[in-house]
Amino acid sequence: MDFTIYYIGQEFKYQIESTVKLFYPAQTFKHEFLEKKPSEPIEGNYILTGIKQDKIIAEIKAEEKFLDKSQIAEKSWDEKNLCMSICRLVFKLLEEFTEKTPSWGILTGVRPVKQLGTILKQVDYNKTKADEILKNKYFCIAEKRELAFKVHDVQENILKTLDKNKFSLYVSIPFCPTRCAYCSFASQQIQHKGTNANLINEYVDNLCKEIEYTGKLIADTDKKIDTVYFGGGTPTSITWQQLEKIMQTVAKSFDLSKMREYTVEAGRPDTVTKEKLEVIKQYGAKRISINPQTLNQQVLDAIGRKHTVEDFFNAFSLARQVGFDSINCDIIAGLTGDTNQSFFDTIDGILKLDPENITVHTLSIKRASNLNAEKNSAQQAVKTHTADMIDYSQKRLLESNYLPYYLYRQKNMLDNLENVGWCKKGFESLYNIFIMEEIQTIIAMGAGASSKIVKDGNIERIFNYKIPLEYNKHFDEVLNRKNQILQLL
């Protein structure tokens, strides 16, 4: 459905559009900014928001239906309060019009737990008052408020251990065996022959040079590494020799003696071999991810995962044999073709393996993904009962003594839900908490990597080129940008 959003006497485009997308996800809108409401009837589907005399107003017309709401504008409102008040009015308008109630209310940000932390500070850590604010000001339902508080409580103890003189290291290996239908990351399908193989070899060589260069920069500071994280893509897509070269370069370039955590994503089971697992373990990584996404083979086939359910079980078993005692498994709720029962079976099947971490994602339909391009698939995905899936996962994980320890949200998530990392007590991923709460400097290397320098409550970002081809082509500029680290630390 095509909509035009009209902004009358105000320009809170980002906040209002974010609120509208809670009810109409994965859509684009036309935008019109006007000084006053048109005197003539507006043609087509539209949402109108803004200020009219001493009122804030919101109205919608779509599919021959019309609804409007208004509220007296308080003279004491500053710009922030005015924006919030308009967003709340739009939320209530669309809630009534669509007969939907987004469970996180108007908390549209990526990091709701971080927002909860801000609220708690404002009320001197009075949880009752903070809960009332989430309920009455942000319209969060009880279950999500409870989840946010659980995550906050787990993180609170972790954050007390934070050493401001330490940083985390992120290494990007942006290659995958195939591209999943739901994926929008700037990762590249891997081939170990021909032009693609040359690209990968050049990328690995340049990545090692960037690691060495960055290590020399850091050596001139008093900063020490707290955590290391290899992400992608799928880092284990490359050969075990290439992986060893990169991990060996990290070990030579940085002092890892004070490191508390080292993670390597081995997300695609079809990339996991004994040689790669042994390399990962040899160079100090004790935590890995092996991600089935689902234990339903038909769903795996539909989303472009070129591995079997059996491949996942074999990879998990092999990791245990090699000696890994901290394994994460990712699963996704709302995948094309999945049903409530098959998702429940996936949760129960993963729990039988007893991994230390289970991350439950809600499908997010990205505009750059194949899933969004294939309209029939997208529509089929939206029809799944994703909220039931998420509710079941939370119930079963709590029953099985897993704790929710980090939480984030994305745009265009089915049913406006969330992604939650669950763990056995003592197996919280420090890196995941630090990156979500944005409280520790993260120095990132490789294509698509973004360094975040946290200092005195401010965050400065240094970006690398997104795709491997551009990263290789402009590698001198990549190194030049790294010089900013010394200025910012």
Describe the secondary-structure layout.
Blueprint: E1 3-8, H1 13-21, E2 29-34, E3 46-52, E4 55-62, E5 65-72, H2 79-98, H3 112-122, H4 127-136, H5 142-159, E6 166-172, E7 175-176, E8 188-189, H6 194-219, E9 224-231, H7 240-253, E10 261-265, H8 274-282, E11 287-289, H9 297-302, H10 309-322, E12 327-333, H11 340-353, E13 357-362, H12 370-373, H13 375-382, H14 386-399, E14 403-408, E15 419-423, H15 430-437, E16 442-445, E17 450-455, E18 458-463, H16 468-473, H17 475-482, H18 484-488
Parallel strand pairs: 1-2, 1-3, 6-9, 6-16, 7-8, 9-10, 10-11, 11-12, 12-13
Antiparallel strand pairs: 3-4, 4-5, 13-15, 14-15, 17-18
Provide structural commentary.
There is one protein chain. This protein is an alpha/beta fold. The chain has 3 domains: 3-98, Double Stranded RNA Binding Domain, CATH 3.30.160; 112-159, no CATH class; 166-482, pyruvate-formate lyase- activating enzyme. Helices cover 42% and strands 21% of the residues. It has 18 helices and 18 strands. It has helices spanning 13-21, 79-98, 112-122, 127-136, 142-159, 194-219, 240-253, 274-282, 297-302, 309-322, 340-353, 370-373, 375-382, 386-399, 430-437, 468-473, 475-482, 484-488, and strands at residues 3-8, 29-34, 46-52, 55-62, 65-72, 166-172, 175-176, 188-189, 224-231, 261-265, 287-289, 327-333, 357-362, 403-408, 419-423, 442-445, 450-455, 458-463. A 9-stranded mixed sheet has the order 14-15-13-12-11-10-9-6-16, with helices on both faces. It has a 5-stranded mixed sheet with strand order 2-1-3-4-5, with helices on one face. Strand 9 (224-231), helix 7 and strand 10 form a beta-alpha-beta unit. Helix 6 (194-219) packs parallel to helix 17. The chain is globular, with a radius of gyration of 24 Å. The termini are far apart. The model is unreliable at 367-384 (pLDDT under 50).
